[in-house]
Amino acid sequence: MAKEQSKVAKGPGRPAAKPGRGDTEAGAPWLTRRQRRRLGWAALGLAAVLVVAGAGWLYARMWGPPPGQYVESLGNAHIQTPESPHPPYNSDPPTSGPHLGYIAPWGVHTKPIPKELQVHNLEDGGVVVNYRPECEGQVLDALKSVVTRYADHVILVPYPGLDRCIALTAWTRIDKFDQFDERRVARFIDAYRGIDHHPR
User: Fold this and answer.
1) Contact at 8 Å (CB) between 193 and 125?
2) What pLDDT is stored for residue 45 in this prediction?
3) Of 22, 67, 164, 171, which residue is the least packed, with the fewest Cβ within 10 Å?
């Protein structure tokens, strides 16, 4: 009896069972092989979505259509006073053309700025945020909250006679609308602020 037991003990060990499809692996004992494969495909899909979204954002930022509408340049001529005769501007508010030899202070203004002064600010790389005085109650505070984020090269000013509630102007660019849109205002400012337009 003892000999038989020793033979059994000395006999070859049984081979370990191979893991089946539903069994777990040592690398991730809580996941099956199928679950690991699905997780890998999900990670690849998520990475592809992020790459496409990033490429779309980059295209819109760098190569997409610039904000606002283009207005042909009327040049950079200087005039002595706002009353000095000059050819009419081709947009209202103006986006280029004859202007005074100095600029208005950057920031929030409570009184209108002459068109001929605004244009020099645009030439210096400024953006002017004009609003119709009759729309003050619905847009002024919101516009202030955007404009005051910038230390310079942005002006907020009332513009009597404006045909829309808001008009954004930069050198040869204009955008007009009635309802405040923070993203639209900030995108316009960020696109054109600080770009100098003096003749080279």
Assistant:
1) yes
2) 77
3) 22
153's CB contacts (< 8 A; 6+ apart) are 106, 124, 125, 126, 127, 193, 194
User: What six digits make up the tokens of 159?
Assistant: 């513009």
Output the pLDDT for position 156. Answer: 98
- 94 token code pair: 């103006």
Q: Which helix (H) or strand (E) holds 53?
A: helix 33-58
Give the H or E element holding residue 172. Answer: none
d(CA 117, CA 103): 6
Report how far residue 129's alpha carbon sits from residue 143's, in angstroms, rounded to the nearest whole number: 8
Within a 10 A sphere around the Cβ of 177, how many other Cβ atoms? 14
- Burial degree of 83 (CB within 10 A; 0-12, 13-18, 19+): exposed
Quick count: other Cβ atoms within 10 Å of Cβ 125?
17
- Residue 128, classified by CB atoms within 10 Å of its CB into exposed (0-12), middle (13-18) or buried (19+), is buried
Mean pLDDT per block of 10 residues along the chain (200 residues) reads 45 48 53 82 80 55 82 96 96 98 97 98 98 98 98 98 98 98 98 91
Between helix 182-192 and helix 136-147 the angle, nearest 10°, is 40
Looking up tokens 């920031």 gives 107
Q: Which residues pair with 130 in a beta bridge?
A: 157, 167
